[in-house]
TrEMBL record:
A Pfam entry, by short name: PhoD
PROSITE patterns: PROKAR_LIPOPROTEIN (PS51257)
Domain of life: Bacteria
Protein name, entry field: PhoD-like phosphatase metallophosphatase domain-containing protein
Domain PhoD-like phosphatase metallophosphatase: residue ranges: 49-284
C-alpha cells in the first residue's frame, strides 16, 4: 500500500478547514441580543439606512422581501441587480460585520405579485440564495421553495428565526378594480412547507420564535396582498402557531412600504400575538393616508424605516423599535417572554 504524501494530506486538511470557516451555519452558539430587519430596497436608489443600522451594532440582519427590485423573468437581469446591491459600499460594510439571512417577496421573486406559476421561480430562488451566500449543502438548497429556519444562541438564550416562503407555492389572486379578491380555498405555503413549519415550531427550544414572511399576516382590511386574501391559510397559520406552544412567537413582515405594530388577542393568544411590519428601506408612501387596521397598535409610519429587536435576557423581554434616518425612533413596543 502506497503512503499518501504529507503535502497532499496537508492540502486536504487546509481545504476542509477553509470550507468550515466560509460556510454560514443555520445554527450559532453565540448569544444574540440585537436583530435588525427590513424590506423594500431598490438597488438603484439612495440607501441612507445602512449606516444607522450599523450604528445599532446588530448581531443579525434579516431581509424580509423585495430585497432588490428585479421585476424580470430574465435571470441575467436579476443577477446584475443583485450584483449592484452587493456593490453598495454601506451594504458591503454590513455584510462584512453582520450575519445575513432572508427570504423574498415578489419584486425579487421576478414578477410583481406572482405566485406558483412563475416559470423561472427555481432559477430565481438560486440567485437569491447566492446573494444571501447560502452554503451549497444547506437544507434549503435541497428542496423546493426558499423557506428556512435559523437558531442563534444556546441553552436558555436561544432565538429561532423562521423564514416562510409565501411565493413559490402560492395560488393565484384575482384583482378587481385594484382590490385583491379572497381565494377561499387557495394555498400560500404548500403541504411540504406546512409540515416543515409545524415541526419547526413544535420542536423549537427557543425562548423567542420570530416568524417572517414578505406579506402581512394579521391585517384583513386593506386592498393589497396579505395572508387574509387566503382566509383558510391565515387561520391555519394562527392555529398551528397556537397549537405548537412555541415560546414567544412574534410575526415579522414587509412589502407595504410602511411600518406598523399590530397585536391580535383571542382565545388562542390570550396574551396577544404581535406583528411588526418594517418596509421602506429606500421608498415609502408619497403621502400619509389613513388605512384601517383593527390590529394596529400606535400609528401608521410612512417614512424610510427598518426594524430593530433588542433582547433583554435578564428582564425576559424583547423591545421592538421602528427606526429611520439618523437613528430616529418612530415606534417602540416591549413584548415579555411567554
Amino acid at each position: 500500500m502506497k503512503s499518501t504524501p504529507i503535502f497532499f494530506l496537508s492540502a486536504l486538511i487546509l481545504a476542509a478547514c477553509f470550507s468550515c470557516k466560509t460556510q454560514k451555519e443555520t445554527s450559532s452558539q453565540n448569544e444574540i441580543t440585537r436583530i435588525a430587519f427590513g424590506s423594500c430596497n431598490r438597488q438603484d436608489a439612495p440607501q441612507p439606512l445602512w449606516n444607522p443600522i450599523l450604528a445599532d451594532q446588530p448581531d443579525l440582519w434579516v431581509w424580509m422581501g423585495d430585497n432588490i427590485y428585479g421585476d424580470s423573468p430574465i435571470m441575467d437581469t436579476l443577477r446584475a441587480k443583485y450584483s449592484r446591491q452587493n456593490a453598495n459600499p454601506e451594504y458591503s460594510n454590513l455584510k462584512e460585520s453582520v450575519p445575513i439571512i432572508g427570504v423574498w417577496d415578489d419584486h425579487d421573486y421576478g414578477r410583481n405579485d406572482a405566485g406558483k406559476f412563475f416559470a423561472q421561480k427555481k432559477e430565481s430562488r438560486d440567485l437569491m440564495f447566492d446573494f444571501l451566500e447560502v452554503p451549497a449543502n444547506a437544507p434549503e438548497r435541497k428542496r423546493e421553495g426558499a423557506y428556512s429556519s435559523h437558531v442563534f444562541g444556546s441553552g436558555e438564550q436561544q432565538v429561532k428565526v423562521i423564514l416562510l416562503d409565501a411565493r413559490y407555492f402560492r395560488d393565484t389572486l384575482e384583482r378587481v378594480d385594484g382590490v385583491y379578491q379572497p381565494n377561499i380555498d387557495g394555498e400560500v405555503l404548500g403541504e411540504a412547507q406546512w409540515k416543515w413549519l409545524e415541526k419547526e415550531l413544535k420542536e423549537s427550544q427557543a425562548k423567542i420564535n420570530l416568524i417572517a414572511s414578505g406579506i402581512q399576516f394579521l391585517p384583513t382590511e386593506h386592498a393589497y396582498e396579505k395572508w387574509a386574501n387566503f382566509p383558510k391559510e391565515r387561520e391555519r397559520l394562527l392555529d398551528v402557531i397556537a397549537a405548537s406552544r412555541a415560546k414567544t412567537p412574534i410575526l415579522l413582515s414587509g412589502d407595504r412600504h410602511i411600518a406598523e405594530v399590530m397585536k391580535l388577542t383571542d382565545s388562542r393568544f390570550p396574551k396577544g400575538l404581535y406583528e411588526i411590519t418594517s418596509s421602506g428601506l429606500t421608498h415609502t408612501w408619497s403621502r400619509i393616508a389613513e388605512e384601517p387596521n383593527q390590529y394596529r397598535v400606535g400609528e401608521l409610519i410612512a417614512k424610510l424605516n427598518y426594524g430593530l429587536a433588542s433582547i433583554d435576557w435578564a428582564k425576559q423581554e424583547i423591545t421592538f423599535e421602528v427606526k429611520g434616518e439618523n437613528g430616529a425612533v418612530y415606534a417602540t413596543q416591549k413584548i415579555p417572554f411567554n
